[in-house]
Write a structure and sequence with these properties.
The structure holds two protein chains of two kinds. By secondary structure, chain A is α+β, with helices and mostly antiparallel strands. Chain A folds into two domains: 163 residues, no CATH class; 123 residues, Cyclophilin-like (Cyclophilin, Beta Barrel), CATH 2.40.100. Chain A has six helices and 22 strands. Chain A is elongated and about 65 Å long. By secondary structure, chain B is α+β, with helices and mostly antiparallel strands. In chain B, helix 3 crosses helix 4. The longest helix of chain B is centred in the first third of the chain and has 16 residues. At the A-B interface, strand 16, strand 19, strand 20 and helix 4 of A face strand 2, strand 3 and strand 4 of B.
C-alpha cells in the first residue's frame, strides 16, 4: 500500500462520489460530486468505476504527495495549472507520482471543481453506499468533513499502467437548460418570461447546498410560502426576496419555497462549473428533449472508456482543424484508428 | 374519504423525478393518500423508480429516464393513486421524553405569554396531543408532525434562528416537530428530547418513519442529562408502544 498525503488544500474540498441514494425519505440528502461527468472522467482514466469516490478540489489550489510508494492519479474538471516537480500535467490525463513526488494544482481558471481520482479508489466505510462527505450530517469517509492539509489516504500502489488522456466532448457554452415546474404555476407569464429571458450570475456566497442567482427579482403570484415538498438536484426555488436559488447536491430534501424550474440532469454539472460572476441564461426545453439528453448523458458516462487515448498521442484540436477545412487527412494521419472523419464538414 | 379529493396532479420535477401532488395545503387526508401510494410502490415496485420521498401533500418519485419515460410512469402512478385506500393498519407509536422550558425550551415562556396562559399549561397541551409523522425532511431525522392542538397554532418567528440545538422539540404554524441535528429554524422552541431520530452506527439508523404516531411526556432536566448520555452511547430511549 502507498499513501497519498494532502500537503495543502483550499476550502470547499472534500471526498465525493456518485452520492448517497435511498434515504431522502429520512431527510438525508444525496450529496456526491457537483460535476458528475468530470468525476467519471477522472475515475475512468485510472480504471475505476465512473462514480467511485475521488477528491473534489474546490476553486483554490491543492497539492498531494505520494508516500511509501508510487501513486497513480488523474485530474479532470475545472481547468487549472498542474505540475509534478515543475513538469506540467495536462487536464484530463493520468500521471504516476513516484514516492516523494508532489502533484501541485493551481487555482481553477474557470469553473470551480476539479476531480482527483486515485487508481484503486479511496478506501473508507460507506454509509448508504457512499463515501461522500455531507458535513451537516457528519457523514463521509475517511474524513466526514472538508479535507485539510495533513489528511492522507491509504491507496493502492501504482500499477505502472501507461498514462492515458481522455477526449471529452467540448463543453457547451449554450444556455443552461431547464424544465419548468413543479411550481411554475405560482408565477405569472411575465415573471416566467423574466426568469427565462434575463441574464443571471452566480453569487459568490454559493456553496454545495445551493447556488444563489443574481438578476432581476422574480415575483410570486400568491406569496412565497408553499407547504414543503420534495427537492431534486437542480431545483430552482424562489424565496421571498425574489432571488432564485438553484439547489445543489447538499440541498435540504424538502423545501417550502415555490420552485419555478428544474435544471435538466445533463446540465447540472455545467451549472456547478459556472464561475461566480459569469453571465449566463436559462432556456426552457420539453420533457422529451430533457429525457433524451439525460439518456445521452448517462450513455456518455457509461462509454467514457471508449474515449481513452494514449497520453503520448498528440491532443489534436479537432474543432480548429475542422474550421480550417483540413480535418480529413490530418486527423486520419495522426490517429486513424480512433477518429471517425465526418463525410462533410 | 378519497372520493372527496381530486385525482393527484403530476408535476415535473426535472427529467428524473415527478411530484405526485394530492393537495396544495396541509391536509390529513392528502397525507394519508401520499403514504398509501408510497406503501403501494414499496409493495409492487415499478421498474425504473429509484427512490420515493413522501411529504405532507405529495410524493416525490425519483426515477431513471433510461428505464421508464415520464408518460409511462405517470400513467402507472395515476392508476395506483386512484386505488381505494387500504383499511387502516395500526401504526407504530413512539413515546418521546421532553425536557420543557429553561435552557432547553427558550421560547416556552414567550409562547405562554402570547397565548395568555402559563408555561405549564402550554406543556400540558403539547403533551396531550396525539401526533402523526407526516413527513421527514430538510435535515436527517427532522420529523414533521401533524396533530398540533389548535390552541397552540401560531405563526412562525419573524426572525428565524440560524442555529437551534439538536433534539429540539418545537411548534410552527399548524405543525409540531422533532428535530434531530442542530439546524436553522423559525419555529418556537418548547423543549429538547434526548432521543435521536437519526444516529449513525445504531440499528435502526433512522427511528421514525412517515405514518408513525407520536406522543410526548415531560421529564426533568436531570433525567434529560442521563438519557442524553445513554442516547449518545446508542440507546434508543424513545418508548415504542406495541399496538
Amino acid at each position: 500500500m502507498s499513501r497519498l498525503v494532502i500537503a495543502s488544500i483550499g476550502p470547499a474540498s472534500s471526498v465525493q462520489d456518485g452520492g448517497r441514494h435511498g434515504a431522502q425519505r429520512y431527510g438525508l440528502t444525496v450529496s456526491g460530486a457537483m460535476d458528475r461527468l468530470s468525476l467519471a472522467a477522472a475515475n475512468t482514466l485510472v480504471g475505476n468505476e465512473p462514480f467511485a469516490a475521488a477528491v473534489e478540489v474546490g476553486p483554490f489550489g491543492a497539492s498531494f504527495t505520494a508516500r511509501d510508494g508510487a501513486v497513480r492519479v488523474a485530474i479532470s474538471g475545472a481547468p487549472r495549472n498542474a505540475d509534478v516537480a515543475g513538469s506540467p500535467v495536462a487536464m484530463d490525463t493520468s500521471v504516476t507520482l513516484k514516492d516523494g513526488e508532489t502533484l501541485t494544482l493551481g487555482f481553477a481558471r474557470g469553473g470551480a471543481f476539479t476531480y482527483l481520482a486515485i487508481e484503486g479508489g479511496i478506501k473508507g466505510e460507506p454509509v448508504f453506499g457512499s463515501l461522500a462527505v455531507n458535513a451537516r450530517a457528519g457523514l463521509g469517509s475517511p474524513y466526514p468533513r472538508p479535507l485539510q492539509a495533513g489528511d492522507e489516504f491509504t491507496v493502492d500502489a501504482a500499477s505502472g499502467a501507461p498514462e492515458l488522456r481522455i477526449e471529452l466532448p467540448k463543453p457547451s457554452s449554450g444556455p443552461i437548460r431547464v424544465l419548468l415546474g413543479p411550481q411554475d404555476d405560482e408565477f405569472d407569464d411575465a415573471n416566467k418570461a423574466l426568469f427565462l429571458d434575463s441574464e443571471w450570475k452566480i453569487s459568490a456566497t454559493s456553496d454545495r447546498m445551493g447556488y444563489r442567482l443574481e438578476g432581476p427579482a422574480i415575483k410570486h403570484l400568491h406569496g412565497h410560502n408553499i407547504v414543503s415538498d420534495g427537492t431534486v438536484n437542480g431545483s430552482i426555488q424562489v424565496p421571498g426576496n425574489g432571488a432564485p436559488i438553484a439547489l445543489m447536491m447538499d440541498r435540504g430534501t424538502s423545501g417550502g419555497y415555490p420552485k419555478i424550474a428544474t435544471v435538466i440532469t445533463a446540465d447540472v454539472g455545467r451549472l456547478a462549473q459556472t464561475s461566480a460572476g459569469t453571465a449566463f441564461r436559462f432556456k426552457a426545453v420539453s420533457m422529451a428533449e430533457a429525457q433524451d439528453e439525460a439518456r445521452k448523458f448517462s450513455q456518455l458516462i457509461r462509454n467514457l472508456s471508449d474515449r481513452l487515448r494514449s497520453a503520448d498521442t498528440v491532443a489534436l484540436n479537432i474543432e480548429a482543424l475542422s474550421d480550417a477545412n483540413v480535418a480529413g487527412y490530418a486527423v486520419s494521419a495522426v490517429d486513424a484508428g480512433t477518429w471517425q472523419v465526418a463525410a462533410e464538414p | 374519504m378519497s372520493a372527496t379529493l381530486p385525482p393527484p396532479r403530476l408535476l415535473s420535477s426535472g427529467d428524473s423525478a415527478v411530484t405526485v401532488e394530492f393537495s396544495r395545503t396541509i391536509d390529513d387526508d392528502a397525507n394519508q393518500r401520499v403514504l398509501a401510494l408510497d406503501k403501494a410502490l414499496a409493495a409492487s415496485p415499478i421498474d425504473g423508480i429509484t427512490e420515493s420521498v413522501p411529504t405532507y401533500r405529495s410524493l416525490l418519485v425519483h426515477y431513471d429516464p433510461g428505464r421508464i419515460g415520464f408518460d409511462a410512469l405517470g400513467e402507472k402512478l395515476l392508476a395506483l393513486a386512484s386505488q381505494p385506500l387500504p383499511p387502516a393498519t395500526r401504526a407504530r407509536r413512539w413515546r418521546i421524553p421532553v425536557a420543557y422550558g429553561g435552557e432547553h425550551g427558550i421560547d416556552l415562556e414567550d409562547v405562554a405569554k402570547t397565548l395568555n396562559t402559563t408555561p405549564d399549561d402550554i406543556v400540558a397541551r403539547h403533551v396531550a396531543g396525539d401526533y402523526k409523522v407526516a413527513m421527514i425532511g430538510f435535515t436527517p431525522g427532522w420529523s414533521y408532525l401533524s396533530g398540533l392542538d389548535k390552541s397552540l397554532q401560531m405563526s412562525r418567528r419573524q426572525n428565524p434562528r440560524l442555529l437551534t440545538p439538536a433534539g429540539t422539540i418545537s411548534i410552527g404554524g399548524i405543525q409540531a416537530g422533532i428535530q434531530c441535528l442542530a439546524a436553522p429554524s423559525g419555529w418556537h422552541l418548547l423543549g429538547r428530547t434526548p432521543v435521536r431520530t437519526y444516529q449513525l452506527h445504531r440499528n435502526p439508523t433512522f427511528l421514525t418513519e412517515p405514518g408513525d404516531r407520536v406522543t410526548f411526556f415531560a421529564i426533568d432536566h436531570k433525567t434529560f442529562e442521563e438519557q442524553d448520555r445513554a442516547a449518545e452511547a446508542g440507546e434508543i430511549i424513545a418508548e415504542q408502544v406495541i399496538a
